[in-house]
Design a protein that fits this description.
Keywords: Lipoprotein, Signal. InterPro entries: DUF306_Meta_HslJ, HslJ-like_sf, Lipoprotein_YbaY-like, Pilotin. This is Putative lipoprotein. The chain folds into two domains: 105 residues, Immunoglobulin-like; 105 residues, Lipocalin (Beta Barrel). 14% of the residues lie in helices and 41% in strands. The protein has two helices and 18 strands. It is elongated, with a radius of gyration of 25 Å.
């Protein structure tokens, strides 16, 4: 009986300690987005930090830092921190960055957004800026001279062992293999984007039903393309709303 009482006392003490620890932990809701209508590469991560600000508003030290899978845009997260490390009279702010899965920084805050802990308010809103000098290529020509193999169309993986491919030439000519037929056309380069011609010249072979369905989805997706982002050996093509509709990987010829 005494052992049971001791065991229950330990459980109660542990629960009280956990409750106290939770009560001593603060949390800031942060909403992050960016203006560019491009899809993030698979595995992108959001890094959010609570920082101590000097009198000039420049981050001097990090109070709390957490990483999250950047699963959607905008993304709202809860950043935890320890109130005990905050200093009375100091100013604090939130900054953020988005990284590829390989650690390449793509987007960054231009300045910290100040946090008012005494005010229960809406999420701290951050709009990040795309870095001009990084390995994420968007300029025309950045995807030419490479054979690209399709891995996904409209979010669905390619379902056969002979996937569609695409090769873009330096002059904007494009050669496509749809899984059965071959096509050719000329890319258009509207300002800040990319577009495929409405009509592509191609062969008209009799294809297995499964392959024909995949090929039609591929061509339909190409006609919706308005932009793209290249990340190393990967390529994502997006529609007018910035939704990822085609995923490719670079394939040695």
């Amino acid at each position: 009986m005494r052992s049971i009482f001791l065991f229950l006392s330990l459980i109660i003490s542990f629960s009280a300690a956990v409750a106290t620890a939770r009560a001593d932990t603060g949390s800031i809701e942060v909403s992050v987005t960016y203006r560019e209508r491009i899809a993030l590469p698979p595995g992108a991560e959001l890094d959010v930090r609570l920082v101590d600000l000097s009198s000039t508003g420049i981050a001097t030290r990090t109070i709390s830092s957490q990483r999250y899978a950047m699963s959607t845009v905008p993304l709202t997260v809860a950043l935890s921190y320890d109130p005990a490390v905050l200093t009375s009279g100091s100013d604090y702010g939130v900054v953020a960055s988005i990284f590829t899965q390989h650690g390449q920084e793509m987007f960054r805050s231009t300045a910290p957004i100040e946090v008012r802990f005494e005010q229960a308010a809406a999420p701290v809103e951050l709009t990040l800026t795309m870095l001009p000098d990084n390995d994420v290529k968007m300029a025309p020509g950045a995807i030419s001279g490479v054979m690209w193999t399709v891995t996904e169309t409209f979010g669905a993986p390619w379902a056969t062992d002979d996937p569609a491919t695409m090769t873009i030439e330096a002059d904007g000519g494009v050669s496509l293999f749809g899984g059965c037929n071959r096509f050719r056309g000329q890319l258009q380069h509207p300002v800040g984007g990319l577009a495929f011609p409405e009509n592509l010249a191609g062969t008209m072979m009799a294809c297995p039903d499964e392959v024909e369905v995949l090929e039609r989805r591929f061509i339909a997706a190409l006609k919706l393309v308005k932009g793209y982002v290249r990340y190393g050996a990967g390529l994502v093509m997006t529609d007018a709303q910035g939704n990822a509709i085609l995923h490719f990987v670079e394939t040695p010829e």
